[in-house]
Design brief:
This protein is α/β, with parallel strands linked by helices and 228 residues long. It contains eight helices and nine strands. The strands form three sheets. Strands 7-1-8-9 form a four-stranded antiparallel β-sheet, covered by helices on one side. A three-stranded parallel β-sheet has the order 4-3-5. It has a two-stranded antiparallel sheet with strand order 2-6. α2 crosses α8.
């Protein structure tokens, strides 16, 4: 029989039922419940309406550039032509390569969390989709990972650009910062995140686009935004 830890039992005392609380108070409660020794991630989870009036269910995949960053450290690799390697190194990328990086990718032995590719190298990386795809690392122009502006792409992912996509049930989630962030910064990131998602609503979906919103931390309990 699974038993809850003493720490978890303590934060359960702050669970809210049948009471409407303001967004700022929710964020402060989530921060208060982040009692572990590490800098917990503050996360938002949504359930969106996938049902379109025409065609199949909506598949949402996009990026959100959080104004205060995500607090998450990304190990960024850049795959580019040989004559752009120096530029990529100066951009702050952790790993840079051309044909040599392609060889590493082909073996499946790589340790980066984001891959940026120049358009000219896309034809060479296509055959490695079976290796990169399952890990969510296949470069995509819509997600900002295919670009000739290497410096900007690296800076974006180093500073807080987060990628999101829904599952088959309409759930999607993302970090909006860390417990070390001020409530004001988390609130600003949250509002920007929600507004970005709202703008992704296509005309073929009628009614409310975002059905439910929850905020939680890595090891905490969740709070429903707008719950009564």
């Amino acid at each position: 029989m699974k038993r809850n830890s003493k720490r978890y039992k303590e934060i359960l005392k702050f669970k809210v039922k049948d009471k409407k609380i303001e967004l700022k108070e929710i964020i402060e409660l989530v921060k208060k419940n982040s009692t572990t020794k590490f800098d917990e991630s503050i996360d938002v989870s949504l359930r969106i309406n996938l049902k379109q009036t025409k065609g199949g269910d909506l598949s949402l995949r996009t990026v959100v550039n959080l104004p205060n960053g995500s607090g998450k450290k990304s190990k960024v690799a850049v795959l580019c032509e040989a004559d752009k390697v120096d530029e990529a190194k100066k951009s702050g990328a952790d790993i840079v390569g051309s044909e040599d990086l392609l060889e590493k990718i082909s073996t499946g032995k790589f340790n980066f969390t984001k891959l940026i590719c120049t358009p000219g190298m896309m034809s060479k990386i296509g055959k490695h989709g079976k290796v990169l795809g399952p890990k969510g690392l296949m470069p995509n122009p819509k997600l900002g990972t295919v670009s000739n502006d290497i410096s900007k792409a690296v800076k974006d992912f180093k500073s807080g650009l987060v990628e999101i996509r829904n599952d088959k049930d309409g759930n999607l989630a993302s970090t909006i910062g860390r417990k070390s962030f001020s409530s004001e910064k988390l609130l600003e990131n949250f509002n920007h995140f929600i507004e970005t998602i709202k703008k992704e609503k296509p005309d073929t979906i009628k009614g409310e686009f975002i059905k439910n919103i929850f905020i939680t931390s890595t090891m905490g309990i969740s709070y429903k935004v707008g719950a009564k």
